[in-house]
């Protein structure tokens, strides 16, 4: 195999000729890409590019697919320290585990958690992650530090709750000033994209919901919130406000093209109409539905109605290929089997939802999500010389069903090589993991979390012999 570290030592004026190039029209042979200044500069037949740019370096990768990096439209970077604590737990774990855990983390633990999560994202082929906001006390900048050090493109939200659900609840004016400062601080940053968030609609007053959504829209940023995920939250909203959470967002004017709602698993036909008419985007989180949800978002119906959506992990498992497989599988199990739909997206939908559509839902369509001239060179090199792709008859669908992160040989963001064989090229991931092993136990023990389900290991004595 080509020594990727040596071959990509410099990506300034470099022609990359993969065996297949994944474009919006599908995987194409015979094409090459010119990388320049961290972007895709030109796409053409390999010999044409070489004739146009005789002084450019060249890398031939006949057994690789060059594809856009995956985009996680919904995750939680400061939950990586406790990710397996929620196994077997009933819904609304944020109340008993995530709010207490995140709220107790000091600045350094926030940084360690975010860097661990970024490591997992890049290993899983995610070149971009949309973080929904940390509930820790004022340590948002440490998420940006972790993203820069690892090279993960990140949308970082500042939580603007004024009725609870985070470690600190400043007064209304302070929240709005901090929101504006956050948007201004990262405006134009090449790797960090600012966002605003309210954890769930009930954690904010009507005025705050309206104002935060407006501030995001005016700044060209994304406004994030969790909506219609659990039955309990839907019922609380009906009791307190007389409307379901999504209906309430529409009532106060917080829906729109700037809004990205996570989950939307419990949506009525009229709510689907609201999403379509307002241009609101959805993060479809299939693994979260399996592990801790009450239902599965009707993603196929959303696609048919023209509702914008992308795939998200919700911090469950950072593996882009397994995420696509889960997205297709849950649609087939929940809707396809009953209706006789044996296609359920035909593979292409889930590949698009993990890349181009995810970028559009995340407000990054002009930045990443496709291999196209002018966009950031965020991409993966996938080894096709594997049994799973031999023989290959439908590579798009094969990537969804047979792909796995161990087939990713290299990960790039902004044209820079970040990972080879699942490990970073310019920082010590094992040293990070060693520090986290030392510190995570005391941090978890000090957090006032409440688990209802014992660990599987603790139940070993009750297992059948």
From TrEMBL:
Residues 66-390 form the Amidohydrolase-related domain. It comes from the Bacteria. Pfam families: Amidohydro_1. Transmembrane segments: none annotated. The keyword Transmembrane does not apply. Keywords: Hydrolase. GO terms for molecular function: hydrolase activity, acting on carbon-nitrogen (but not peptide) bonds. The keyword Hydrolase applies. Signal peptide: none annotated. This is Cytosine/adenosine deaminase.
